[in-house]
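Hey, quick one: can you model this chain's 3D structure?
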Amino acid sequence: MPSFRPAAVRLALAIITSAGLTACGGGGSGGTIQSVTVTGTEMRFDPAELTLAPGRYRFHFLNVGTTYHDLGIYRDGRALGIRETGAGQSIDLDVIKLVTGTYTMECHEPGHLQAGMRGTITVRKPS
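Sure thing. Here's the predicted structure for all 127 residues.
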């Protein structure tokens, strides 16, 4: 009977678990995860308007401004994901499932939304 070291068994289980999560898209409700990069600078997002197909998305937010900014994804006034980062840094929001409809990107740092730091995401099926 072979003898296994506990560390080797844990490593093998970690590799198998990781491979399984990769194959099924990272867990959750299946499907491919698309990546979208949004850049923030003083009082604007780039791009400010996105058109996407329904699906699961991870938003990568790059803050190229000189102060803190956050990227929040909202639908009907409800935050689906929001993260803040300092100047010159970047973060990823958790995976968000987008269905057909209109969403907003907003920065809620004091005064930023009022100064126009917002964008629109339109989600529709490809024609």
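One thing worth noting: The first helix runs from residue 6 to 23.
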